Amino acid sequence: MKYIGVDFGDARVGIASTDLGGCIASAVGIIKVKGLNDAVEKVAAKGKELGGQAFVVGLPKTAFGTEEYRVERTKRFAQQLEEASGLPVHFCDERFSTGEALRYLSEGGVYGSKRKQVLDAVAAQIILQSYVDGLERKV
């Protein structure tokens, strides 16, 4: 199964995709958005373009695992994405994914404006890889 990873944000949405076997996640890029409806429309279209069969959306819980405003907004986005795309949407805890992405980029020597252009896509890749790795453990 081919999954599309999503790091949802109000201004930018990071996108990642797995291989056709659903094992290896790769960063695809970012989508600039203006609001929830715009994000739903553009992400659904990108998922279709990439041949996705399901979405994995990062759930932004706090460091303590609690759910606050961002989680509610993300769940609303995911519900609308599922309706608009007709594809199932799964969630994956995204705590620390941005920090991990920052560390990867720093280790790779990516800084400044280049970092901003890829940060959300790398975070989406980390979220998606975490999800598919969890699936393998369940088998």
Main traits of this protein?
139 residues; alpha/beta; Nucleotidyltransferase, domain 5; 5-stranded mixed β-sheet; 4 helices; 5 strands; 50% helix; globular
Per CATH, what is the topology? Nucleotidyltransferase, domain 5
Largest sheet: 5 strands, mixed
Helix/strand/pairing category: alpha/beta
Task: Please identify, by name, the CATH architecture.
Answer: 2-Layer Sandwich
CATH H-tier superfamily: YqgF/RNase H-like domain
Strand order of the largest sheet: 3-2-1-4-5
Oligomeric composition of the shown chains: single chain
Count of extended strands = 5
The residue fraction in helices comes out at: 40-55%
Number of domains: 1
Task: Note poorly predicted spans.
Answer: none
Write the layout of secondary structure elements.
Elements: E1 3-7, E2 12-18, E3 25-32, H1 36-49, E4 54-59, H2 69-85, E5 89-93, H3 97-107, H4 112-138
Parallel strand pairs: 1-4, 4-5
Antiparallel strand pairs: 1-2, 2-3
Describe the structure.
With 139 residues, this protein is an alpha/beta fold. The protein has a single domain, classed as YqgF/RNase H-like domain (Nucleotidyltransferase, domain 5, 2-Layer Sandwich), CATH 3.30.420.140. The protein is 50% helix and 22% strand. It has 4 helices and 5 strands, in the order βββαβαβαα. It has helices spanning 36-49, 69-85, 97-107, 112-138, and strands at residues 3-7, 12-18, 25-32, 54-59, 89-93. Strands 3-2-1-4-5 form a 5-stranded mixed beta sheet, with helices on both faces. The radius of gyration is 14 Å and the shape is globular. The relative contact order is 0.23.
